[in-house]
Design a protein that fits this description.
Elements: H1 6-16, H2 19-22, H3 36-46, E1 52-56, H4 63-76, E2 84-88, H5 92-109, E3 117-121, H6 129-139, E4 144-149, H7 152-161, E5 167-171, H8 177-183, H9 204-214, H10 218-227, H11 241-260, H12 262-265, H13 269-281, E6 285-286, H14 289-296, H15 301-313, E7 317-323, E8 329-330, E9 336-339, H16 342-349, H17 358-380, E10 385-390, E11 397-404, E12 407-414, H18 427-430, E13 438-442, E14 449-453, E15 456-462, H19 463-481
Helix pairs in contact: 1-5, 3-4, 3-19, 7-15, 10-16, 11-16, 17-19
Length: about 500
Amino acid sequence: MAIFSEADLITLMRVQNPWWQTGETDKRKDLQFRRGEYYLCGQVFWHKIRRFPVLSGPRRVGKSTIVHQMIGDLLASGINPFQILYLSLDTSAMEEAGILKLLMIYQSQISQSEDFYLFVDEVQKDDDWTSAMKFIYDSFPAVHAMATGSASFKIDGKYRETWEGSLRLIRIPTLSFYEYCQLRGIRMQGIEVHDLFKLHDASLADQSSIMMKLSGVEPELNRYLRLGGFPEYIDVSQMDEPYALSLIEENVINKVIFNDLTTTERVNPTQLKRVFSYFCNTTSNIVNVEEICRELQGIANATVIKYMDILESAGLIYCAEQVNSSGKKILKTRRKVHIADSGIRGAVMSELHSPDDPVQKGYLIESAAYKHTIDYCRCVDPTLRVGYMLQAGRDKEIDIVICDRTGIRQLIESKVRNQSIVRDNDLIITAALDHQPGYVITKSISDYGLSSRDTTEIYRIPSTAFLYLLGQMKYQHNRNAFSGIPSGI
């Protein structure tokens, strides 16, 4: 006998779908600002080649907000409210019922139309969600559907195992610095760079104009590095920042480690949290698995590697692979770990490290630069790879290396320190590309420009400009790809 009756489920469905009574969404859930991923979801959702977008990423990054924005736009376009079905499986009753049972209740009690729009939040809570979505895809050819999931490791695994041709996995990271500024209401007029890595070709006057305008958001970068890119915490007062960080630890980190991943991935949550804390403490550093095992004691090499994969798929870290001079991956065990968001690191390490410390700020900027770079590359061209380069036998490296099918496309080095000196024997000089200057990320907004070094050139770019402009490029790429809801739906 089911714990929850059909009447109970109908009551919950009516609560989750208020537009059946009001004809509109809850305005508190439909923010005016659209993230770049909103436009990417719309492109997939309405494409003539039918696929169901699956939004995957950490908790509290705005996946549900994107869903409610899509629903709000459907209602605004004149869609019958009863043709829109939203299911959140983040309650015991809805989780127990599962997608197909809820769909059958909807079909029998709410709407008999086979032309409807389905949105499922926390889809991974239905253990057989891929089969359910495949059934819907095959049985209702007029249906458009979208799903979200917070436990990315489960989502990715199911996605790889099944019918990739009918799903489109879309990763939703935390806010870029550009999106953070937009959501904070900070609008920088007259700044639009189509290709950040061609900024060195712009006139000195244009470069100076851009840097002068971006000097206005330089203080915001320090705040972004303290709190990170979680939308609901960007406007907290300085007094409430410690509380916001505690909520990030409680609602993002602990819920993923102790709830989302533990039940099915057979991990020791306390052990996993210790490994994650180690990565927080050493963000932007090359991982030495043997050293981790020695320091944490009782954890096997294979377990550490497994936990790295889990934490990366869960959206809590990024792992940079080492590449050689031709752009090919080498030595998977020599990965470099970056915490996926500075707010995540701050939530774990706030009592140990101050983000205002020059060394710690250098680590945070490097991780933020890697996050922005890989998020951008995944957006514009999934074939692009992002890693790092290490000179054999020497303590020389290049922090970020962008590779395409033909080899290395761009070299990027973070030098955010009080004395960000580039020496002639640094790898970004000795391994320089023939066709493109290496980009060096600097601390001050006034520290920019192209200069000749040895037989090559480097372009110094302030961290504020690098993060803002790369985030803007990603946002504009997504926005330009979506032309809106088709007419006549």
